[in-house]
Amino acid sequence: MAKITKIQAQKRKGRYNVFLDGKYAFPVAEQTLIDFRLMNDVELTDEKIKEIQDSENINKAYGDAVNYLSYQLRTKKEIKDYLYKKEYHRDAVDEVIERLERLHYIDDASYAKSFVHDQLRMTANGPKIIQQKMAQKGVPDNVIQDALFEIDSDTLLENAIDFAKKQVRKQSRTSFKQMVTKLRSSLYQKGFDNEIIEATIKALDLEPDEDEELEKLRKLVSKVQHRYDKPAKLINYLMTKGYRFDEIKKVLGSED
Predict the structure, then answer these.
(1) DSSP symbol at 72
(2) Domain named RecX second three-helical: which ranges (predicted)?
(3) Count of CB atoms within 10 A of residue 57's CB?
(4) Is 2 helix (H, G, I), strand (E, B) or coil?
(5) Closest to 188 measured CA to CA, from 167, 205, 170
(6) What is the pLDDT of residue 156?
(7) What pLDDT is stored for residue 255 in this prediction?
(8) Positions of the chain with pLDDT lower than 50, given as ranges
(9) What is the CATH number of the domain that holds 21?
(10) Which end of the chain is more exposed for a tag (fewer CB within 10 A), N or C?
(11) In Å, how far are 213, 214, 221, 246, 250 from 256, measured between CA atoms?
């Protein structure tokens, strides 16, 4: 048995140091003092001391978790990883997670809905990328699928079109064929499926401008012609850039 001989307030509000038999033993929160009715001359067994310290550790972990949650919504996995990183024991982490779920401070289904909404509002990411990001955060697959199912197709297409318009402007110096190829690739990389990609390209109503294509081709020929000692090699290169053979012959013929 050990007797409490002193309870000293720390500089941190609501925190106290407990002294047993005249020696510092452990720190506690004010709520722990109340819960265990700790005061001078109370005697504690080793088992009771361990119970107090375990409870204090759980309360501390809970406080850290709530503080972590105060900045933004988190998934269950993110909270667990955060607490493990701070070296809390598994039992304490499990207790904190259970308490947070009971109070609805963490809810992966609500998190998924909010995450999808924010992604659609603030990024150009399509469903596949959104799915990957949620999976990385530990959201269960069935919860992810439920959240993705609620995505409005019109919103998705609108986002894809906005993103595609920017990509078209970025590819203004490339051939029409290469621009469309890169556009499809960019949309795919952003997580859009083929149906949305084709609907996006159709909505943009893209058409090549022959004069513009020839002008871009002339500039490219002027830039790279010196690299090739044979016309065939130059033609092959230009075709890989999306220009048609008849366009290339027309430009090269005018260069002679």
Answers:
(1) S
(2) 107-148
(3) 16
(4) strand
(5) 167
(6) 95
(7) 62
(8) none
(9) 1.10.10.10
(10) C
(11) 19, 16, 12, 16, 10
